[in-house]
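Morning run. Coffee first, then this:
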Amino acid sequence: MAGNLPYLPPPKTALSAEPVCVFGEEYCLPHETALLVRSRKWKMSDEFEVTDVEGRLHFKVEDKLMEWRDKKTLVNSAGEAVCMAVEKTFTLHSGTHIMRGRDSNTDNYVVRTRKVSASNPKMEIYLRDNNTSVPDLVAYGNFKKLEFKVFNPRRVPVAEVRMDPFGPRSYHALLLDVKAHVDMALMVMLVVMVTETMIPPPSPPDSNND
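And here it is:
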């Protein structure tokens, strides 16, 4: 599980997650969905593949380094670009902007997030039409262990991420549970952002062993 969160008590009554659909109805299924997110570090880039529990491919991530910032493109099983995330580091509030398709212009963002770190137990997520200081979604948990939940403003979880205990050692395998009517593409991109921040790149080979 995502760990104890004493500062965010669960609701006293059972509530269903409200719809959170950003990138299209095809990614907001009417039932809860279990996904497997596999990632592997390759030098300075990441490789991500997202399948369901039966092995059907849902998403992949294209990872490219720009001059001063990182960008990732989420593509669906047909190879169509769903969204692009661009990290902004030289701003007052460092974080990531997510645009539709392959649009890399951060002025056209539909989702923005505050930068996540191992010392900060939460990540705030804001949708485009939110002009307030209250986030639309908040991710809480142990990011260093890649275990966290995403909550809506009513403190109802809309997604949960945890390590897959049976995943292969050559990959970082995560289980992502997405609630009904919640955007799978958005949740996958949030997992990708946390994973690539928390997992350091592999160490260079030891020249003494050559």
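The longest strand covers residues 33-42. Good start to the day.
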